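Help: why these numbers?

___
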Amino acid sequence: MLSIPVAFISGLIFGFGLLLSRMIDPVKVQNFFDLTGNWDANLAFVAIGAIAVAALGFRLGGRPRKAERFPVPARASIDPPLVGGAVLFGIGLGMTGYFPGSAVASLLLGRSETGIFVLAMIGGMAFYRLLKSGAS
């Protein structure tokens, strides 16, 4: 059961990267979207760095270490749930400055608004599962 410690260490590295890049600061993330005011390009550089590291890993690694192949979504089409989820994610990111990874990492700062966001996020996930299980 080596995959759980590997996933945990990967999560710690991801969280440390968010901390190091200050992407756990919601104001810093929101400033990326403020094109006419206090614009901050750091989020773009963090994304470009992450894409470069991932591309290098795909290129050099060939396949995952703990799986036979990379998981591929069953559907390749763009459907309303995908678009709706992307829109909801973008609205939430723009309004709060948090995305799931940064919110969980930000819990260490002890801000009440971060806790409220994470609870709402977990509630939204549970609500989605409830809706999805009822539709099956």
Q: What stands out?
A: The helical segments are 3-20, 26-33, 42-61, 80-96, 100-106, 112-135.
